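Morning. Coffee machine broken again, so started the prediction first thing and wrote up yesterday's gels while waiting. Chain of 139 residues, entered below exactly as on the submission form.
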Amino acid sequence: MNDPAVAELLMAARAGDPIARASLVDREVDAAYRFAHLLTGDPTSAAACVREGFARAWSTPDGVPFDVAVLRAVASAARGHGAAPLLRALAPEAREIVALQLATGRSYAALGEALDLDRDTVRSRLQRAWSQLAGGVSP
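Came back before lunch.
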C-alpha cells in the first residue's frame, strides 16, 4: 500500500522524529508479530523477528511500501528460527505464505507483493499447502 500518510511518517521517522517512528510501529506491529509467531511458534522468537524486521525496514529503499518491507524482513528473520509445530510439515516457502495469510488476511496479490512473488505462485503454493495440512501429505 503506497499511502501518502505512511510515506510522510516514514520520511519523518528516518529524519529522527520519534513520534512518527512510534506511529509506524503501532500501525504494523500487530500483523508483524502474528506473522512471526505463526512462523516460529515461539513468542520470544517472534518478538526477536519483529525487532529485527523493523530494524531492517527503516533502511528499505523508498519504492517498497513500509508494511511490505516489515513483513519481508520478518520473514527473513524467521528463517533462522525453528518452524511452528503446525507448519513443520510444509516447505519453508509454503510456511511463509500460509502464516502471512492467517496473520493478515491479505489477497493473493497483496501476499505476493509482501513476499515478492507473483499472484499465481501464491495461489498454487497456498492450495498445495492447505491440501498438505488437511491430508498430512509430506512436502
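The first helix runs from residue 4 to 14. Going to sketch it on the whiteboard this afternoon.
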